[in-house]
């Protein structure tokens, strides 16, 4: 739990609603990634919308390398 940080979804540190709807708990690495997106956007001339993931157009990961693990293990017997 000590590795978790509170992140303001809209990046406005003065927007602190009582229901916590502008906050999310992120690990240190994810929090750093959220803020580095803006640095990279400035560097490469792209835009980032607060609260949206730059990779959302890539889609959801569906590959499971362990899907047939039991069958693969049984083959070796």
Automatic annotation (TrEMBL):
InterPro entries: HNH (IPR002711), HNH_nuc (IPR003615). Residues 3-37 form the HNH domain. GO terms for molecular function: endonuclease activity; hydrolase activity; nucleic acid binding; zinc ion binding. Keywords: Hydrolase, Nuclease. GO terms for cellular component: cytosol. NCBIfam families: PRK11295.1. This is HNH domain-containing protein. The lineage of its organism: unclassified sequences, metagenomes, organismal metagenomes.
